[in-house]
Specification:
The chain is α+β, with helices and mostly antiparallel strands. The protein contains six helices and seven strands. Helices cover 67% and strands 11% of the residues.
Amino acid sequence: MKMRAFALAGCLVVAAMPVHAADDPDVLRLGARMDALQADPALGRLAAFEQMEARQAIAVLADAKRSERPGALYLADRRVEIAETAAATESARRELATLDLQRSDLLLQASRRDAERARQEAERLRIQSQIQAEEADRLRLAAEAEAAARTDVEQTLSTVTGKQTAQLSAARRKEAELARQEAEIVSGAKLPPAVFESRGEVFTLPGGAFAQGALSADGKASASALSAYLQIGKRGRVRVEAYDKDAKLAQARANALKSALVAGGVPAAQVQAAGVKSAATAKKAAQVIIAP
């Protein structure tokens, strides 16, 4: 009812405009905007009060004297703009309210679906748990019946595995020994002492293998034998570690030993050199570790 009253009042205001207003381009322009707003099916019934105020402002503009016209035109422009904005805002607010209702309805439906799925999943898990419990009982009984036989089999396998491991280790050591002999024959030099550790096969070079940051004659001979050994058979990656209290000197020794191995034919990518800041001794100045 209020909206109809506001619309009627706006129409009365337009009807009350003097005849000469029909020739005023500003009045016509603003009136056309208001007519377009009122004719809009989505916005025409909204912001009735603001539309009425805009119509009134246009009527005032139509009757304004020349001196009053700038202020009246500014006010009419603002009132029309406010009416348009208020109608759009109210339309957006109503649309938002509708969307909120739709969203609430969708959330409610989703919640009901989730609850139903949860109930079904709980029932499925209950049945599955019951089946698993029955299967576990069956397996437990079967396991108890086979326990003695399994123990015998495991003991037998352990014994066989131990023997096979020992045989494999012995075969590898024999292979390494033959490779050492071949390398010493090919290079004409003796290999440094070696041991097998968890890290792999470890060769230890004494302090006499180095002259400061370079290899001595003995060191070059050992490097020549090691190069030949590394090229016999399939050897893993090689790590060269050199020791000295001076970290730079230790790294220089490691680099020198790696360079000698590479010069002897070992691929550079296969060798890693690292200096270790630790006191070198007469028996241990560097190690060459061949990964298993």
